[in-house]
Amino acid sequence: MAFELPDLPYAHDALAAAGMSAETLEYHHDLHHKAYVDNGNKLIAGTEWENKSLEDIITGTYDKSAVAQNGIFNNISQLWNHNQFWEMMGPGKTAMPGELEKAIKDSFGSVDEFKSQFAAAGAGQFGSGWAWLVKDTDGGLKVTKTENGVNPVCFGQTALLGCDVWEHSYYIDFRNKRPAYLDNFLNNLVNWENVASRL
Hints:
This protein is mainly α. 48% of the residues lie in helices and 11% in strands.
């Protein structure tokens, strides 16, 4: 079974009032995400990975000793990352559920400290990559950052929240102001109920 591009869980213009324009979603979802799907399907066709899950392909093709990953990993991992990314956002602000707020306070001291660490991770990721809130293998929450398409699946962690800091995610709306994009993401775009459902 070939992988398919999932529909956005909202209209292309649904996030515009919260700082992510329809134009960004048209480019990011309809072109960039679709390219990962199409290229990933071509690369796994006729290989041992053809009928495997995204997660199995990611863990099976990730090379922890290398920065530059292979084509199958890059496309399949980015396909997975974007599948999560759209679900982690939503129109209209959602309150942070109590269970998630408690877990964040237990791990970071406060929600503000978590947001500060997350924004710093995203802003400090050199070049392309992602900032993550993960549930680590010990059950605690931590903020991480990864280069290019690398994601928490590679490390046995559970991704609770991820923010794409590749330029195509923010350049139309924020130009080169990545910190402003991250601040807007955390305060206006995150669907905290979705994040909590991943605990």
